[in-house]
Amino acid sequence: MEASKPLFKRVLLKLSGEALMGGQTSGLDLATIERICSEIKEAHIHGVEQAIVVGGGNIFRGLNGEAQGIERTTSDHMGMLATVINALALQSKLEQMGIETRVMSAISMQSICEPYIRRRAAHHMEKGRIIICAAGTGNPYFTTDSAAALRASELNCEALMKATKVDGVYDKDPMKHKDATFYPELTYQKVLTEDLRVLDTSAIALARESKIPILVFSILNPHGIMDALKGKGRFTVIK
Prior knowledge:
- The mean pLDDT is 94.
- Strand 1 (10-15), helix 1 (30-45) and strand 2 form a beta-alpha-beta unit.
- The chain has 8 helices and 11 strands.
- The protein has a 9-stranded mixed beta sheet with strand order 4-3-5-2-1-6-10-11-9, with helices on both faces.
- It has a single domain (10-238), classed as 3-Layer(aba) Sandwich (Carbamate kinase), CATH 3.40.1160.
- The longest helix has 25 residues, at 72-96.
- It is of the alpha/beta class.
- 37% of the residues lie in helices and 18% in strands.
């Protein structure tokens, strides 16, 4: 496996809202955002075209809102708006680093970002701009994991990179179980049948249908994005 250059030309990076919290219990940690953006910049410098789908769980999670008595559709829309806040924070930091970036929202709010239009998004990527896809799919009952698989398929991405707090997929939570078994490689079917909960089932099914490999790696590891792109270090490939 060639380690000197990226294995993929165009990828979709899925970031959870929680990844932006750093050591906080909620909200945004600017030092963490800067570190993540520096790694995105590193991949950009190596010529990797990137689309990013970001979650909103650090600000508001739709399922939690429903549990507190907010109607599910309304709660999910609130979660989508949280992803726009995160996307704008990422855009601001990336542009401070000299990288052209576009936030594209599935919910129209043209005074602060562009509407997501597939051809326009592809054009931005071809021009070397990073696009950040916000507001999920724009529909309630769908997670940002589903949005990531959908955008990766629409934009002809060669891989979906799922950034997590652990360095791959295990048979059980390695944070709670020291005997958890690490999987360096998995099939889509095994993830579904064993309910490994890497992404939601609709996202896995769509990635399988589109034949897009999923790379699961730790966003906490220094240079984690580039290492996974080069096939280095510890991560899981689902294909």
